[in-house]
Amino acid sequence: MNKRLWSLGLVFILLMGLLAGCGGSDGAGSPKGGKGQAENESAGNSKERTKLVLWMPPFGTGDTLDKEFWTEATRSFAEENNVDLQIEIIPWSKYEEKYLIGISSGNGPDVGYMYNEMIYDYISMDALEPLDNKLTKEDRDNFYYLDHGVINGKQYGLPIVVGNARVLFYNKDLLDAKGIEPPETWEEFRAAAKALTEGDTYGYVMPWGEQAIGALNVGFFPYLWQAGGEILSEDGTKVAFNSEAGLKALQFIHDMKNVDKSMPESVTSMNEDDTYQFFLEGKSAFIMAGTTFAKQLEEKGINWGFITSLKDKRQGTFFATDMLVMFKSSENKELAYALMKHMLKGETMAEYHKKIAPFPPVGKDEEYNDNEIFRPVYEGDKSILRTLPVAKRTSKIYDYLMKNIQLVMIGELSPEKALQDSEDYANKLLAE
Amino acid sequence: MNQADLTKPSLMTGSIRRGNRWRDAVGAYAFILPSFILITVFYLIPILMTGFYSVTKFNLIQKPTFVGLDNYTRMFSDPFVTASIRNTFVFTLVTVPIQTFLALLLAAVFASRKDGFWKNFTKSSTFIPVISSMIIVGVLWRMMFNTDIGIINSLLSVFGVEPVNWLGDKNTALLAVCIVSIWKNVGYFLVIYYVAIMEIPRSLYEAAEMDGANRRQQFWMITIPSLRNITYLVVTLGTIWSFQVFDLVYIMTGGGPGTSTITLVMTIYDTAFKVYDMGYASAISFLLFTIVILVSVIQKRFLGERG
Questions:
Q1: Entry pTM
Q2: Which residues partner with A170 through β-bridges?
Q3: What is the mean pLDDT of residues B55-79?
Q4: Highest mean pLDDT range out of A54-58, A189-193, B26-30, B170-174?
Q5: Cβ distance of B257 and A407 shorter than 8 Å
Q6: Which of A227, A230, A253, B47 gives a 20 to 30 Å CA spacing to B172?
Q7: How far apart, in whole angstroms, are the C-alpha atoms of residue B262 and residue B86?
Q8: Over 70: is that where the pLDDT of B290 sits?
């Protein structure tokens, strides 16, 4: 009898769980689901509303939610244009997969956010709508980085999130303790890192155990550019990193770890988060990271400074230019463009930069709302700020290059062989 | 049953007899139809579609174009594919024997103990890794294997061992992943072995004891041979699972350092969802499919039921 009661009870609990699960999925995906639903209901009126779908990634942290922000920010647009705007926030880890499956099944968005490494493939799949004939003269005057959205001669994207430039942070206390000035050239940097390596503290730390190819943006590309090199050839048909500059850059970081021992052995198992922790604990004097890292430094109370870019032959560092794109499958292209304009206008962007994540302005109609300390980075010599070239298969090419560089850092492969091997692999892919 | 029933068949005419058989057949097919439909739709058809796509160039959005056997010939000069095949085989050869033997050993130990609170507690504990989320397992073990502050290096330092760069060294990264995989799977196979051991007739052991066999001899001479068929099941399942390893490696090492931990399923995933080359990914999937079938056939030949 007891056993029966227990089993019945268990079945009941499981059933409740099942029903709760089914019920829960009817509501909106975000925790503030109730508000979202109310939003849709109140924004509507008796006329037939046009449906638009927008996909955005998450930049908010903790209690700031992207979906809430965008719903609020686009409310006036939705009301004025009688639009039923469905906003979905896609987590970074599922980003590419979601787009691929959504678009191939015909359930893609009208407007979406894309980053460099993925945009070319969608252009070559003929999935994106060129925006040249929609941009007005006013628009062209206003936006700063439009040229970063021109691929194959057409304007496929409007830059929306620009910034997070990778700069070289340093721990002021560690440098002051040894009376070392912030370095400007490669030689000064190498010497400083070596001098600052003592006991448990190291001069430099790099994320060579990172799974994502983004590690190259702090690990190799800035050094390649500074040495005067390029990633791809002008016409995008061949890679250009297997050059004198490329070899110099790779040899430089290899020697810093394996010759000078200015980096801990464990860098080959550290991902970006691990390197941040390492620096925040005061175990490394230098680290290259995006300007958004400053927030964590402030919270931890580190006495920090930064250098925009070291100089070898020239200065150069990575910054992100992620785009808003419009899909060919959109049935309301005029409205979709109007939505993009609304999102990118100064007012909206200022709120975004204040509430969700600070980034420099994309257009003249916005004041600078990023961290004041980094103002000179974005208002200074813009040619120092580089983006990745947009071409097909770059994702795979960078992945292979990164794996070869990991082997160089372990000391298993020579820089020459690593670059040659990567070049052979890449050129084969590009030729297909 | 009376006399009349027993003689009934011979009283029936041919057509009525065939009618009964027909009804029985329809009934039988009706019973297996739902499962058959599910298997066809979710297994058979996708496999055939993969085979079709493997001879095309296809990015999911534009129409596929026929490319013959290009995808297959490409595979063997692709450094990612060759590394994946090598790593997947090494991973299988390390994890399957160890987890099989450990599961068997532990099951035998449990079987020889009296029932009680501690026995049940430890037995259940070994199953917790099995039901734990692979993501959490990967993240936690990654922290434990951390070169500078991980608990494993801390423990080793007590014995005077220098810190090992577990996930950052080509030679130890795959080993680390193997350790976690074994830890996660042992509980599952332990349960299977435990049940099987309990089924072995006590009389065999009693007889052996009377003949003077000690515990170790009993284990090798009675327990292990009696579990032959179960071992075949455990090894086959373990092999198939290890060929599918993806999420654990993805979280712990991302395939690195270099290509020392990438696996076949990881390569398929990257090719499909990062490079958008569905045709090539389908071809590699077919390769994996073929390897698994071959290995299963070989295992059946050597470990399968005899006589």
A1: 0.79
A2: A286, A305
A3: 87
A4: A189-193
A5: yes
A6: A253
A7: 9
A8: yes
Question: Chain B residues with CB-CB distance to A under 8 A?
Answer: 59-62, 79-80, 145-148, 163, 165-170, 173, 250, 253-259, 270, 273-276
Domain boundaries, chain A: 30-163+321-386, 166-318+392-431
Sheet of A304-307, strand order: A202-205, A284-290, A166-171, A304-307
Residue located via tokens 């003592």? A198
Contact B258 A412 (CB under 8 A): yes
Whether residues B83 and B119 fall in one domain: yes
Length of chain A: 432
How far apart (Å, rounded) are the C-alpha atoms in residues A378 and A145?
Answer: 11
Report yes or no on B63 lying in a domain: no
Q: What is the pLDDT of residue A129?
A: 93
Q: Where a domain ends, among B11, B26, B53? A: B53
pLDDT value, residue A62: 56
Which DSSP string corresponds to A48-96?
PPEEEEEEE-----TT--HHHHHHHHTHHHHHHTTEEEEEEEPPGGGHH
Cβ distance of B62 and A269 shorter than 8 Å: no
Tell me the mean pLDDT in the region B11-25: 70
Put simply, whether A182 touches B (Cβ < 8 Å) is: no
Mean of pLDDT values over A68-86: 92
- Residue range B265-271: mean pLDDT, rounded: 91
Instruction: Please answer whether residues A212 and B254 qualify as being in contact, where contact means their C-beta atoms are separated by less than 8 angstroms.
Output: yes
Give a yes or no: residue B234 inside a domain: yes
In a shared domain, residues B134 and B236: yes
> Inter-chain contact A268–B165, Cβ cutoff 8 Å?
yes
Is the N-terminal amide bond of B257 cis, ω within 30° of 0? yes
Are residues B279 and B240 both part of a single domain?
Answer: yes
Cβ–Cβ contact A396 with B under 8 A: yes
Q: What is the pLDDT of residues A270-298, one digit of tens each?
A: 989 899 999 999 999 999 999 889 988 99
Taking CB atoms and an 8 Å cut-off, how many pairs form between chains A and B? 101
Confidence band of B220 (pLDDT split at 50, 70, 90)? confident
Question: Which residue segment(s) compose the domain that B170 sits in?
Answer: 71-303
Say which DSSP state A268 is in: G
CATH pick for A30-163+321-386 out of 3.40.190.10, 3.20.20.220, 3.40.91.80, 3.40.50.2300: 3.40.190.10
Look at chain B and report how many structural domains it folds into. 2
CATH code of the domain made up of A166-318+392-431: 3.40.190.10
pLDDT(B88) > 90: yes
Query: Is residue B88 domain-shared with residue B221, that is, in the same domain?
Result: yes
When pLDDT is averaged across residues A88-111 and rounded to a whole number, the result is 86
